[in-house]
Amino acid sequence: MKILITGYSGSGKSTLCRKLQERYELPSLHLDAVQFLPAWKTRAKTEQQRVVQAFLDEHPDGWVIDGNYKALSYERRCEEADVIIQMLFGRLDCLSRCLRRYRIYKGSNRPDMTEDCDEKIDWEFIRWILWDGRKREKRDLFRLTRECYPNKAIVIRNQRDLDSYLRGSSSFPS
After folding, report:
1. With pLDDT > 70 as the criterion, what percentage of the chain qualifies?
2. Could you tell me which residues come within 8 angstroms of residue 98 by beta carbon, excluding any fewer than 6 positions away?
């Protein structure tokens, strides 16, 4: 089984990835950990692409990948995925989740991040959660993905949808 999890920052992509990885005993890849080197330095784009390609090539039978990153084999990930989960929580829900995550991991690493990338929150990230990460281009990408892969795409818009999905339901609003 191959599961791709995309969506807005703070929606719970990485947490869902860990849960599904454990449930189905699949290898996982967190694209934030691919982008960032220790101390929040950005890995070179060519190296990011190499890491993702190698992961996809090494795990032809199944995986769980969380993250958007259109430049990192997005089309291939969508094409190969059996399920594409879009975590499209509202702005304030995402901000609340990020603030809760910050309280939990402040001064330390999340389990899905590169070592020495201590959890932080600043105005730039808050702006990304509330506005910049929700621009038309991103919304169009999610919509086009649903249109191209209607039989694979599952939209999760709130905690109720997420709980239902985790219990095994497959009926979601588009």
Report:
1. 97
2. 9, 10, 121, 125, 126, 129
Distance CA 102, CA 88 (A): 20
Specify whether the CB–CB gap between 119 and 109 falls below 8 A: yes
**Residue bearing tokens 């304030």:** 92
Query: What is the spatial distance between Cα 170 and Cα 90, in angstroms, rounded to a whole number?
Result: 21
Q: Give the residue from 167, 9, 171, 173 showing the smallest Cα distance to 87.
A: 9
| Burial 59-73, CB ≥16 within 10 A → b, else e | beeebbbbbbbeebb
Beta bridge partners, 5, equal 66, 85
Instruction: Please give the Cα distance from 3 to 173 (Å, whole number).
Output: 19
| 5-45 tens-digit pLDDT | 999 999 999 999 999 999 999 999 999 999 999 999 999 99
| Positions in the chain whose pLDDT score sits under 70 | 169-174
pTM of the model: 0.92
Find out whether 96 and 164 touch, Cβ atoms under 8 Å.
no
